[in-house]
């Protein structure tokens, strides 16, 4: 855009001029009328008589307005966020306005006329002083007039004084000055809007008086309220910015109204359809004035400019298109001869209109229409120039084509289209950052043309496309310039006049220099500085295009442009720039991977030439090394020898170059193959390393100093050193050379400080070294046969190959990635030089190393089948060395647990001595001891190891891993591992269930009416005396049945309970001798319980409240304690049985309470035998005890009856005692009543017939159960009380309710006795 006249292509932004503030340090926004000397003499001076303001508030306000200048904002309708747009300029006290009517120049004769001549604007073709006179259309001076000379709004600053003695004087001065400015603007006949801003001083009077003064000033000046502003004092910067923002928003509407009026005036003049008469009729030239069509173009152009000021882009586009079509019509451009200056003026106006049409289309988002409009203008201008001009086959038209493409790129950049300047949503990474390659290459067409079939060039592409297109036209421009004859390239002073005249009509010089300046002869190139540097222009366009292509990831385009740019730079011998441009592309060139060898070759030769001239020795060597590849074209008389690469160069230091297959097309193809898929540690694996030279035939052999293969696994690398080549049998063409390479191992130690405590650790690495001839001739294949010792189990393979080349002048390292997917790794195994076989394996680069079968055994002679809770655990192991030689060994112990398991604590003993090393806990909770030295275990010898675990309280599972890492004394480099994993299950040896049965306490209850039983709470009396419980007492029997869940018989040493006594109760317990079942035992102190068997133990618990007043329930917490020991086998009698104690929690029981309780107990009374009876008869005594622990007097009714057998209609027993009675109980008391029962049922086995059912008699082995019909009822609540069995011989009838009484067979009477 810089080649066009200033301001001709600028975006039209409303012009705001400030007046009355002294200029600050930045004068960039200072007003400059830029009037010509003739117009400056006739200009109108607008001057303010009051002094300019210089305070901080005025400067801050002016600075804010200037900072929001919109002349450089993007021309993009989507990005309009501000409510105002101004081009801001500032003047201190005065400025010049161009004359509205131009005076006649001196010396012009006015023809006689009855009317005086009419003066016109100096920018009109009607005025004689205008360069457009008499038939010009319009030029850029009119555009500059509205952009920077005639403001739409004049903003004047004044001070509103606060001194009461000066207010009237200063207010009158303001009114006078404003009226003076209004008068001057009115005299100039411009429609500029006048606005006033008053800055109030710090100490102002009351608000009412200020309002009156402001209204007086406004009315006295005749200013509209929209153009009258006041800035109060003491405003903060934020508040001042807000006020300035609101003021500019208000002035925006004022400016829009100004330009709307100007546009209305232009349309009104066009609608008249009249050609105005010039001030003086033309008398020179053709004496032709501007036609009506020309005036229509002028008016349409003005209307479009004013619509653009108003941001009405659709209206502006319509007016521009109308002016464009009229301009290129047959009435204007078709009628102008090409030799006339008006021809180029018309072309310039057509370009300006076309550019402004493109800006309107881009503003409205019509991107495809903009691309079409650009193409259409180029085609129409080419057609017009071919028909009416000097043709398109010249450097002038190609210069215009390049300029036109560059203009499109500049418009796109100025528009700042979001799709071109930022990444799209699809081009974002996971972290939200933008990806440059996701920027759009071209924009999708708008909806208006979506249905049409568009060509690719009709889509709007990014700016790199247009810069590249401009470079193509610049190439053609230079070619046309070079094809000019020499006589046309001479300056006019050195050419005959006839040639100069003929040359004027031969070349198109529209906005470009004459032929002698475009491409002068060498003898005249230095005489003047105006000649064109075509290479510099091309390089500039190519670099701009390359930058845009690189942003969008178009690497191929960028590389192509870089190569073109380098060739242009080579023509001007800018070698350093070529190296900087091509080096990054040469290092990472996608053309190598895609097989574009020709592109790689061209770029390499270009870069090598520049590198030699720039002294880049390392780059020269790397390129020569790549050019040995036979795929490149042969260059005649070129020595393909890397040792001669630096001939003629003197580098500052010895170059050290590193290349890889990703950087170059390597002439060396490498392959590494293992013969076998598996191997064992301690053995050797057969492998082959083959190097094939794909160098150009006839090139010098390459002698490598060293070849190193990087391995993963126990062996770090294989290093082959070069040795003198021994003469051997002559090889035929295509035959490989096989070389046996003996390898020797050596160990290197590397110190590192990666340990947690910061101490340095020594890491040992094993490498293999050998010697072999490393001279590689063109087309030769060398196969190195290797035997690689396998040391550690795992995966061992080759990763990369490094070849070192050292000459007298440089050092080079070539890194090859030995990937099985590369073409070089062809899985061939050479049997002979000419015979191969294919390794049918997915990955022949690696071998799976199996562990060497260890002969170190981990024995567990004392390992128990099961371990139990609360038991100290000793785990003994024997490590037996069955190797043939001694083995230095280390032990690793890992004890892992489940997530919910408790962590275990263990200690390690070796040969009876405890290891002081503390086990470390991992993140998973596993405890481990690593690297515990066991010393050297002799052959056929064993070493005892013991792990001691502290008692574990609950059931859990552990996994114990023992790992012995050792090596043979004869082979310290091969570690061998023996591992044993054991499952350690900790179980509970016992489980139990419990019954708490009530019993009748033998002692009487205390009574509330006995003074001796009252508990005294006086501390003075009971201070030295022990507390004697005086409350109620109860007795319970705890029956425990415990079963063994052990896998072996255990010896029970003791069974006891632990009772936690409540604070308000005293509890005693004792162990009962036995239960009704007999326990056979041979030992009085202990007995053996076998697996899956159950034993029973009973305990009597007696509880008494401390005071008689306390009768609340109490919780009884009991634990069952079983002391046991393992049974030691007879062979291990030397080890003592270690007693263990297992504690089982008993469910919590609740004792005592205030509810009445009925206890039933049974005893047997022996009677003397009757006559004719040998055995004694026993009477059953049934005792009922009713306890009243409440504070109430209770009455109970008791009834007892003997049931009748439904078959015999006889009672089952006889009894003595009250059949029905009433029992009264005082508060906190208990009473008992006895019944004597004589069973009447038949003794012995039942004689009932089959199918008969006993209702009230239940027969069991050894006796029968009878059911007395016993009922106890609370007379007050009429509530039946549950009868609770309180001893042996009585139980609850679970089916029918009530109680059953046990009658032994010896107690029953026979039928004869009853008779």
UniProtKB/TrEMBL annotation:
Listed Basic and acidic residues bias regions: 1082-1092
Region Disordered: list its residue ranges.
Answer: 747-767, 1066-1092
Q: Where is the composition biased (Acidic residues)?
A: 748-760
Domain called Trafficking protein particle complex subunit: residue spans: 342-628
Q: Which residues form the Gryzun putative trafficking through Golgi domain?
A: 657-1243, 1261-1304
Name this protein carries in UniProt? Trafficking protein particle complex subunit 11
Pfam families xref list? Foie-gras_1 (PF11817), Gryzun (PF07919)
